[in-house]
Specification:
- With 659 residues, this protein is of the alpha/beta class.
- 37% of the residues lie in helices and 14% in strands.
- The strands form five sheets. The protein has a five-stranded mixed β-sheet with strand order 2-3-1-4-5, with helices on one face. Strands 13-12-18-14-15 form a five-stranded mixed β-sheet.
- A hairpin with a 5-residue loop joins strand 2 (123-124) and strand 3 (130-135).
- The structure holds flavin mononucleotide, iron/sulfur cluster and FE2/S2 (inorganic) cluster (FES).
- Flavin mononucleotide binds next to strand 9 and helix 22.
Length: 659
Amino acid sequence: MDSRVPAELERKIDEAIGHYPSDQKRSAALPLLHLWQEHFGLINDDAVTWIAAKLGLQPINIFELVTFYPMLREKRAGKTHIRVCRTLSCAMAGSYQVMENLCAATGIQRKTDPAAAGHTPVSVSPDRNYSIEFVECLASCGTAPVCMVNDDLHENVNPDSATDLLQNQKPAITNQQSVHPLEQRIIFKNIGRSNWKTDIKTYLDDGGYDDLRKAVKMSRTDIVNEVKTSGLRGRGGAGFPCGVKWSFIKPDEKKPVYLICNADESEPGTFKDRYIIHEDPHQLLEGIAISCFALNARTAYIYIRGEFPEGAKILERAIEEAREHKFLGKNILGSGFDVDVHIHRGAGAYICGEETGLIESLEGKRAYPRIKPPYFPAVLGLYMCPTIVNNVETLCAVKHIIAMGGAKYAQFGRPNNTGTRIVCVSGDVERPGYFEIEVGKVTMGQLIYEMAGGVKWGRRLKAVIPGGSSAKVLRADERFKIKQKQPDGSMMEEEISIYDLPMDFDSLAAAGSMAGSGGVIVLDDSRDMVWVLNNINEFYAHESCGQCTPCREGSLWMKKITERMLNGGGVTEDPHTLKTIGDNIAGRTICAFGEACAWPTQSFVEKFPDEFAARARKSIPPPLPPEDTSRELIEREQIPTSPLAHDPGWEKAGADAVI
Ligand SMILES: Cc1cc2nc3c(=O)[nH]c(=O)nc-3n(C[C@H](O)[C@H](O)[C@H](O)COP(=O)(O)O)c2cc1C
Ligand code: SF4
Ligand code: FES
């Protein structure tokens, strides 16, 4: 044993390695890096060499993780490390002000790296007591602005008294106490309930694990058929039918089958999975155990984002309790079926939510999404074995489908859009929060005006991003032609306003956007759409994994252009250039991040042309690529133009003869 690694740390390291098959030790790379950083405060060359040797890898295999995952640090942070969320809902609620005030109070001079824009590296106070960084959406947009102080999440931070954060107080997580009459709570039944605790006794007293008892007496095919009958569509973003995905696993599959619960929840505007994990972990474990039984998957991993350290601990405890009660482990409930569930923590990269990026990350590599085909991890997934990846909320829904039967579940919601789902409302509303609704039974108008208390006092609705920041923006004054399947199977077309738009997959797709992850971001008439888009563009530019040129370069160009427009350097070509860049990303990349980063730009520029034109006044061509925007271009009102040498060919092509 290396003398510098204390016995207790090495014990934890060996335990972590034991969570993965003996020939797949590389998977333990991220857990080991977390353990090392928690103990030593940083990952230095010694750490890289030691961990690589421990896992039988080359140092580069470990070092490439340190440089990829933002939560891993090569330099020590301050004693108190603060993460300020800079993503849209928090930025709208004043998180940039929070950052400024915290820096002033701690004496931190933030280094400004123009290439990294808002994402300067971790900045440390001169006394090394504090360090601070901007991070992306912490999945608590309904209580924006939010910060993490070490491992604790602080909600509703008042920018003017942000320094209260430094008082070492343990924050109390706020919950919505009341259930709105338009809600239909099934999955969120216990969230915010008084006297509800996360321990297994509370869960069992409430009938917990009865559905697992029922499931292990059913045949696997019957369970899959119930899920198919329910019409459940995945709640992670794509809305793919869960039962259909499950049926890709062959009943006589010879290779091990894996289930992965996607708890990466990082789509800006989305904050539902965190509440389930923090407040009702056994509901999720029961859903996982039932799903594993149905799929004959003897191992499940919960891939939880690194920014949920408390959630990971809660789940670890719940797994222990479930094992003690024989709901997990060997021969569960005397069924002869063995199942193990392990927690695997990410380390701060949005792309880990994309299922093939997630699998790569779980295998101990950079989260580079895999080239398709195969299109589904059900064909080739974790360790080249059939793998089902499902979102936290989807797996919880499975439990309720077993409880009530697929047909009854399908009666909730609308045809092809069945069941309930949690929608998260943030941004410019009076009462941001989460609401569990029957899919499509609530309209956008009801959601914003009745459930979320309406647009902020004195303001008017300007636009809505309906399904996480990747969804195309909808204008408040748009009219949508929607074809709806009626309960009798007939189709009916109607033209409706945004207020009457049903909150379901098909209607939002017909309106030209998507239901996505259920994160609804509301924008009022005080919002500058170039500013909003720039905030979104910064997210994608930071989060692109960098594999595909159109995505890596295009997301950065789009951000640089919107940033230049905001700084007063916009040129007349900018809206067109933005659109062209977006058009050249979507459909040309390995994963759907390409569309996710192009759609906001394409839709904002198309739907708010006047605002973009107003910030694009200067009549000279932009520098292409927009790597550098000269100060002159930004600062001077008009850039002098100089005539080009006469070239009739250019004139014929319609080009201005000036530059
Ligand atoms: C860029 C990107 C990010 C994603 N992030 C998440 C995420 O944070 N959580 C999630 O459940 N699904 C996310 N997804 C969707 C997953 O790839 C996958 O479709 C989903 O986990 C499947 O579960 P479901 O069928 O239950 O929805 C993301 C997809 C993309 C393209
Ligand atoms: S589209 Fe973007 S995020 Fe997806 S693989 Fe390509 S570079 Fe990575
Ligand atoms: S938590 Fe800050 S934007 Fe989501």
